[in-house]
Amino acid sequence: MKKLRLIFLLTAVLAAALVGCSKDDDDDEKGYGDWPAIKVTASQVAFSVDGGSQTVSCVNYSNWWISAIALSDDTASTTTFTGSNGKKATNGWVTAEVVNKNQLTITAAANAEGTARTATIAMTVGDAYTTLTVTQYGNGTVRPQN
After folding, report:
1. Does the pLDDT at position 44 exceed 70?
2. Would residue 48 count as lying in a domain?
3. Could you say which of 8, 30, 39, 105 has the lowest number of CB atoms within 10 Å?
4. How many domains does the chain have?
5. Whole-angstrom distance, CA of residue 108 vs CA of residue 46
6. Does residue 88 fall inside a structural domain?
């Protein structure tokens, strides 16, 4: 009888260990830690050579903030924060500003250089993060076909 109890106990412990270590179906949607990944209405925005503004929304969080803006053609550039708590930032030709808690307005200055350029905006909320790619076309740049 003691052997039967021991076998039953070992089987129960083994089953609990296997279930406890299984992969969750939504692990791919996790950000860093236990925070679900940030979901946005668009992960890429594009501007004409004339510049302009576009808005991207975060659909599953409010109160996100800007971590950094990186320019692809200038590794020595730095992000200048002008708003409190990462709510407004500029780097070179691109400015990003959090408005209405879950919306990000991205503004691109006119492209006087005439060549295409790209920036990456890093957004954070809690332990979750995402990046947005900003492309601005230059004179004569052919836009990719959708």
Report:
1. yes
2. yes
3. 8
4. 1
5. 9
6. yes
Domain containing 83 — which CATH number?
2.60.40.10
Question: In terms of C-beta density within 10 A (0-12 exposed, 13-18 middle, 19 or more buried), how is residue 27 classed?
Answer: exposed
The enclosing H or E element of 18 equals helix 2-20
Note the Cα 86 to chain centre separation in Å.
Answer: 14
Confidence of residue 77 (pLDDT cuts 50, 70, 90): confident
Strand segments, DSSP code E, in 12-63 are 44-47, 52-57
Burial 72-100 (b: 16+ CB within 10 A, else e): eeeeeeebebeeeebbbbbbbbbbbbbee
In a domain, 15, yes or no: no
pLDDT of residue 16: 43
Residue 94: inside a domain: yes
The conformation of residue 75, written as its DSSP 8-state character, comes to: T
Sign, Cα dihedral of 97, 90, 74, 63: negative
Q: pTM for this structure?
A: 0.73
Tens of pLDDT, residue by residue over 78-131, are 889 987 788 999 999 999 999 998 999 999 999 988 899 999 999 999 999 999
Sequence-distant (6+) residues with CB within 8 A of 68 are 79, 89, 91, 121, 122
